[in-house]
Amino acid sequence: MHYYTDVLKRYADFDGRARRQEYWMFVLWNIPVVVVLMVIDFALDSYPVITWIYTLAVFLPSLGVSVRRLHDTGKSGWWYLISLIPFIGGIWMIILMATEGNRGANQYGEDPKQVVAA
């Protein structure tokens, strides 16, 4: 749970690097939250207003952790735009997010694995 709240605390922070674990735990916590909100919207027999509000609320934190994850692999945050390419872009983005980060410091900061371990 702390991975989820840590990302929310760094709301619009696009500097630094994020480990794979930080990114994927945030994504995995978002899935059940969205599913529960969709069930609530369905139970209220309304347009998915609650789900859309939540999605908009976590858009910047999601973008921030994605950019920091790309920084960990040595890529610029602008690589996030690759996901806009139909079909291949989403697959490429998943591969980039699952790729192990650079060991040691890179141009975006210190290795988050070493910082946590220290």
Automatic annotation (TrEMBL):
Coiled coil: none annotated. InterPro entries: DUF805 (IPR008523). Keywords: Aminopeptidase, Hydrolase, Membrane, Protease, Transmembrane, Transmembrane helix. GO terms for molecular function: aminopeptidase activity. The chain crosses the membrane at residues 23-43, 49-67, 79-98. PANTHER family: INNER MEMBRANE PROTEIN YHAH-RELATED, INNER MEMBRANE PROTEIN-RELATED-RELATED. This is Aminopeptidase.
